[in-house]
Amino acid sequence: MRVVNYFDSDNKEHWLNEIRKGDWSAAAFLYELLSKGTFFDAVGENSRVLLLTDGDELISFCTYAEKDDIQPTELTPWIGFVYTFPKHRGHHYVSLLMEEAERLAMKDGISEVYISTNHIGLYEKYGCEFKTEMMDMNGELSGVYVKKIPNDELLIELQDTEWPFEYTDHDRRIARAIVYDDEGFFYFVRAERDDDFGRATLIETSGGGVEPGEDLNTAIRRELKEELGAEVEVICRIGIVSDHYNLIHRHNLNNYFLCKVISFGDKHLTQDEIEDFHLSTLKLAYDEAVAEYEKRRETRLGRLVANRELPILRKARELM
To answer: 80 falls in which pLDDT band (50, 70, 90)?
Structure first.
């Protein structure tokens, strides 16, 4: 799956027809704004239409816009026109769109994003809080929710300079953690791999892909239990690193957390992690960890991983 901006797409006509299939009056209105070229007039020139796609299929969509149906107001920006096609409901796919909107807000230095809705108990699942009721453009009361955007988290956007860019065909939503104990030691995984990326021994934070319908906190606890055998306290989110693996046409959205070990137990590694990656645990002091990352820059994949993780490790040390 990928989140793409409609206006950056090379196939706008296809996605416009997909939006038109939505069985909701607001979807029809969005189609009208886009097809008539009046979208920016209605919601502001810096606005975006975010599409959650799977190949040529549209799963869900929303707008990240300067204005929505609460007008006039000084509140901005807004997440609006939130829609998931019926057969894809129940998997919390909206969370991927919400996270992309949050990333855009962080990039713009915005501290709050708003949602106008009459749903109760829906957007609370995505970290939104009820703010007030306001009159919408139809003269009806609507609930206004706010999503707080952390201003102390890192947002790092990296490109892959090791392999040539051809195209990106999927995103991977990932939860990763800097894990430490009472004595100040850090826990990582070591991977020994020999695949399309080449032969490499790597140090990497523990973590992995977020499963459909899974929130980030649940994902990071699961991953740490599987790979390190660790029960942890999630202290805070450190930030987001957006990076790319051009070789496999993938965009990674790495959500990093700071976690403190409560206890260790059995690991639950997959066969691939055991047989292909030979995954093992590294317990290192801070300076040792930095030195290990620098050492592994000898390979192309090692350089990509070090570029992504060393800024996060440094920030984690500041937070501890």
So the answer is: very high
Kindly report, residue by residue over 297-320, the tens digit of the pLDDT. 999 999 999 999 999 999 999 999
Q: What is the pLDDT of residue 84?
A: 96
Question: What is the residue-averaged pLDDT of the chain?
Answer: 94
Which tokens go with 242? 């957006």
Query: Contact, 66 vs 77, CB < 8 A?
Result: yes
Rounded CA-CA distance 50/39 in Å is 13
* Residue 269 predicted with pLDDT over 90: no
pTM (2 decimals)?
A: 0.86
Name the token pair of 69: 């149906």
| pLDDT at position 37 | 95
Q: What's the pLDDT at 144?
A: 96
The Cβ-side half-sphere exposure at 271, using a 13 Å CA radius, reads: 0
Q: Dihedral of CA 251/255/260/261: which sign?
A: negative
List Cα–Cα distances, 206 to 191, 226, 242, 277, 314, in angstroms: 11, 9, 17, 13, 16
- Which residue do the tokens 């999503």 mark? 147
At residue 285, what is the residue type?
A
Name the residue among 94, 84, 154 with its Cα closest to residue 125. 94
